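User: Structure with ribulose-5-phosphate, tokens only please.
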Amino acid sequence: MAATAQIGVTGLAVMGRNLARNFARHGYTVALHNRTPSRTHALIEEFGHEGNFVATERPEEFVAALERPRRLMIMVKAGDPTDTVIEEFAPLLEPGDMIIDGGNAHFADTRRRERALRERGVHFVGTGVSGGEEGALHGPSIMPGGSAESYASLGPLLEAISAKVDGEPCCTHIGPDGAGHFVKMVHNGIEYADMQLIGEAYDLLRQVGGYHPPQIAEIFRRWNTGRLDSYLIEITAEVLAHTDAATGAPFVDVVQDRAEQKGTGRWTVQIALDLGVPVSAIAQAVFARSSSGHTDLRAAYRDLPGAGARPLSAHEAETFTAHVEQALYASKIIAYDQGWKMIMDGSAEYDWDIDPGAVAAIWRGGCIIRAAFLDRIRAAYAADPGLVSLLSDREFGQEIGGAQQSWREVVATAARHGIPVPAFSTALAYYDSLRAERLPAALTQAQRDFFGAHTYRRTDREGSFHTRWAEHDRPEVSA
Ligand SMILES: NC(=O)C1=CN([C@@H]2O[C@H](COP(=O)(O)OP(=O)(O)OC[C@H]3O[C@@H](n4cnc5c(N)ncnc54)[C@H](OP(=O)(O)O)[C@@H]3O)[C@@H](O)[C@H]2O)C=CC1
Ligand SMILES: O=C(CO)[C@H](O)[C@H](O)COP(=O)(O)O
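Assistant:
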């Protein structure tokens, strides 16, 4: 077989198929492979006219169809299937060739795979891809890791198929080995938090505001023309305006209220715990999904006493809606701030040298969390590349300051009406913890010293100290 393809894609389910079509639509010849050949043939039959494809069935044929250095993209189910596919293709490759894993792999797996393939001279490029099925076809946000050398060869192809904002590609080299998959993982963690916050806003507008789903869809549409302008707000309006054809009920009412997850949000929280980064809004979003699925616990708690929601008057509901918009925006700033802190701490831990402004820039288009807001984050890092927190940026600081009274009103109202708002309230608690002059952490340290002689530091002098709590006069000693 002649080596005519600039890129090959193996794994032709929703993502791989559309990425392959996107490459072909940009003029690249694309070799195709899938474990089950019928998917390859279906793609050719339906979309073969869109560009130059080389359909293959055997791994040897697939590799032989690729120009050197070979660029072989894997779009299969993350986890063991990715290792299976690597083991199948790696022996057929030569030094300088590239394997690009565009699946949602755990970055630790990517680091392991990159190390192993580097020993054979093959570049392994763990690449985050976001945008879902449509994004894959029309322009996703792409987060490649791996070596700078591999990016020099691969970058132009990925940039060509990525989304564009102001003419700039939503793709950049994130950093070595697992950096791309790490950043994609945090993207998904933020995605979980954003979705949970939007869900809480919807619940409040419905149960306290007394609005029906189509009215809430209108509110979201209005918000989508302002500072909350984002893909997730846009699709929420579409979902809420949709009527179920079978029952005539609002579609949202016929969907079971048990949220599922594939794992990237959970990984974000697990890794955040290891890094010691307090991503509390993301964690609450993960826990909210898991508690929604605990039907046994929900049945056990259902009849317990609590406040019930009492809809407000129309006039009060209008004021309340404005408060909810402020609370949603303020909480969103916190969730993104936590995500960025995690990216920067991960970058320091693994020596990746990630550019925080570049991450904001490539998330402005193509990805699920794309939002007008990301351009503001990009601008904040452009103004101060060493920004410790988004809230150190004057504009974000002023905005959250302006929103905080409404935010408190919303969290208090939710508590009074018995509406769970774990993400709104944890975001507010995070804000208040970090701005507090003194925290009860002092008491925690004293308790730890009492029961475990763990020592404490004093406010008035240097050093570590221990109080001998069991002795009568409780003497303090230097530790
Ligand atoms: N769906 C989405 O919105 C997004 C998905 N992703 C990630 O992209 C990747 C692809 O996702 P998606 O398109 O949804 O497809 P799936 O995750 O559903 O994976 C299906 C593909 O994996 C192949 N596959 C599964 N097991 C094996 C195996 N053991 N050996 C070889 N091939 C195998 C299937 O082949 P076969 O046809 O033979 O069964 C099929 O091509 C995943 O890692 C996913 O996490 C990333 C961003 C968004
Ligand atoms: O990567 C994605 C979007 O960015 C995928 O859609 C992912 O599956 C979303 O996560 P989950 O299924 O856990 O909600």
